[in-house]
Amino acid sequence: MTRFTTESLALALVILSPICFLATATLQQLSIVDDFLLPFLQNYFKIKDIPFVMIGVVFVWTYVITAFISVIAQSVGLKNGYDNSEPRLYKGLLRGALARMVAAHQVALENAPAFFAAVIVASANKVPLKYRTSFSIMYTFLRMIHTPLYVLDFDIARAIVHIMALSCTAWLFAFALLPGFEKNYSSIIEVVTILRSVSDDSTWTFD
């Protein structure tokens, strides 16, 4: 468990957020999703349908699987078991991993609607399919690994994963709603490419 003061938390978010946004943009540009995950999915779905398939996967993950985990946590953690007549009343009494199981479900609930909207708006506004597939698959994968990271209390890792998932939603909205954004996005990718090239070509010597 890592504790932050208000100032250090704000500083961490200011530093971490742009890094996470650049990370997902870099992953999209490197075609990792296209090379490894997309061929598998194309065995079962048409490529144009994959963003909507990801909506279905996230829906099941959020409203079925993490919901089930949350109910189990409450049943185990409360003295008298799960009270279906007042299911939200005793959540605040849970501690440790059981409390984090409930919290992971709540985080999933908070973020899923924005992702659903982003995919739908991006499709309606004819965002190029390569961006819709890449970012929707990345979001789904990140959201699914966020839950175990949360439950197991890998707090820094799950915070990074959470911001990266949010960035996928934000990228989709940006492509859909900001005129000419693809050109700006290409400029961002060029900067990342240059930085990677400089890093790869640099040699460090110590006398």
Please give the radius of gyration in angstroms. Answer: 20 Å
The CATH topology is given as Four Helix Bundle (Hemerythrin (Met), subunit A)
The rough form would be described as globular
Number of domains: 1
User: Helical proportion?
Assistant: over 70%
Count of individual beta strands: 0
CATH architecture: Up-down Bundle
Proportion of residues in extended strands: under 5%
| SSE topology string | HHHHHHH
Structural notes for this entry:
The mean pLDDT is 86. The chain has one domain (21-179): Up-down Bundle (Four Helix Bundle (Hemerythrin (Met), subunit A)). The chain starts with 5 loop residues before the first helix and ends in a 6-residue tail after the last helix. 77% of the residues lie in helices and 0% in strands. The protein has 207 residues and is mainly α. Helix 1 crosses helix 6 (155-177) and helix 2 (32-42) crosses helix 5 (129-151). The chain contains 7 helices and no strands. It has helices at residues 6-29, 32-42, 50-77, 96-124, 129-151, 155-177, 181-201.
